[in-house]
Amino acid sequence: MFESVKKNKIESGIIIAIFIIVITLIVYYICNALRLGTMSIVIALIFSIATAWGSYYYSDKIVLSLNKARPATKEEDLKIVNILDALMVTSGLTSKPRLYVVEDKQPNAFATRKKSRKCSYLCYNRLT
User: Which of 14, 44, 67, 94 could bond to 24 as cystine, CB 3.0-4.6 Å?
Assistant: First the structure.
């Protein structure tokens, strides 16, 4: 299990590095087309690092807002809240993750965040 965690971290680092390089090159060429001179590479690096940092640390909020997710409540989503509670007990989680529901006909579910104590689970109401 720990080998797969290490592998996932390495792969995530590679993906982020590729993202930074690609965005840097795109912004650099746009800045060169606008004739911004030597500041082009500085602008490109700042922009690419800022977007990579923002997407890494705020990806959960971005995904939840794009899907128009709402927090799950016991009154409306009792079945899925009970499932989460059972999963918490069996997995030994000490803090309850935030649970969100999306009103959509397509079944889907996924988790966001890197740390278990701040993670969110998103479930489409078709699964409940």
Answer: 44
